[in-house]
Task: structure prediction
Amino acid sequence: MVTIRHEASDDISAVHALNERAFGQPLEATIVDKIRSSGGIEISLVAEEQGRVVGHILFSSAGIEGPQGIVRGMGLAPMAVLPDLQRQGIGTQLVKKGIEILREMHCPFIIVLGHPDYYPRFGFERASRYGIRCIWKGVPDDVFLVLWLDRAKAETVRGIARYRDEFNEAV
Result:
């Protein structure tokens, strides 16, 4: 049975190794480490099975800058599950728990650069539908998504979405 819980300090090396393995490269793991060391992690959850970290999801601050000023929300990235345990619902549990926590925190939105067939099941929609563009050039419209947790903001917030600076090296 998989348990979803907040990351503990004892999980750091397991989370690093998990992200490296899931993505097949160290980039995402390094970004998580940099965000953690800068104090920028808002929510870091792990999926644990039989005492082993098998999944991880990170939410860090993000903003949408436009005529209304900067509206703060969260960016979801990365989300990883061990390759041999993918497609078993672990990622779904991580995303749902993160959304639940952010709703309780009254976070207005979550942005994600993710698979267009995966994230809409959680309510994510194309950000362009709301006049929101990703700061990084060349990001396909169908993979830059937003989930409005405060629907009233969806009517007024427009502009350029920015993730934390640590993500800039990934694009």
